[in-house]
Design brief:
β4 and β5 (67-79) form a beta hairpin. Strands 1, 2, 3, 4 and 5 form a five-stranded antiparallel β-sheet that branches. The protein has one domain (3-116): Bacterial Protein-export protein SecB (Roll), CATH 3.10.420.10. The chain is an alpha+beta fold and 129 residues long. The protein is built from two helices and five strands, in the order βββαββα. The longest helix is centred in the last third of the chain and has 27 residues, at 90-116.
Length: 129
């Protein structure tokens, strides 16, 4: 399946450090895929090429030394696909989500490197089916 992807958009990214250590909690990571609809007549041509969706990833990761909370997204178009969005193969959605998770990892690494003045923290995500 051909998939057109937009750039990744960071909607929010909040980093905080505690006065005393946080209690480490289980990270919360949620993905949503939202089908979009044409807004004006100019959009109709684009939507004739296939479904357009917004893929969102919200995260709340609290470790002992810091916490990151945020939301990132990207637009995707499934070319020549006109079925229901919830029918898209889970492996395809997982692959699209991996790019967003990589972005969260990069941002967290860079921010913790600057904040703690030592090598950044490498987040490790595992698939949870």
């Amino acid at each position: 399946m051909q998939i057109n992807r937009s750039e990744i958009k960071v909607e929010t990214f909040n980093f905080s450090t505690p006065e005393k250590q946080f209690e480490k909690t289980t990270p919360t990571i949620e993905t949503n895929i939202i089908e979009l609809a044409p807004v004006g007549t100019d959009d109709n041509e684009m939507f004739k090429k296939g479904k357009i969706c917004r893929l969102e990833l919200s995260f709340d990761i609290q470790l002992e030394d810091f916490k990151v909370v945020g939301k990132i997204s990207r637009m995707v178009q499934f070319v020549d696909y006109f079925e229901a969005v919830n029918e898209i193969d889970a492996a395809i959605v997982r692959e699209l989500t991996e790019a967003l998770l990589d972005y969260v990892q990069r941002m967290t690494y860079d921010v913790t490197e600057i904040a703690f003045d030592k090598p950044g923290y490498k987040l490790q995500f595992e698939a949870n089916n």
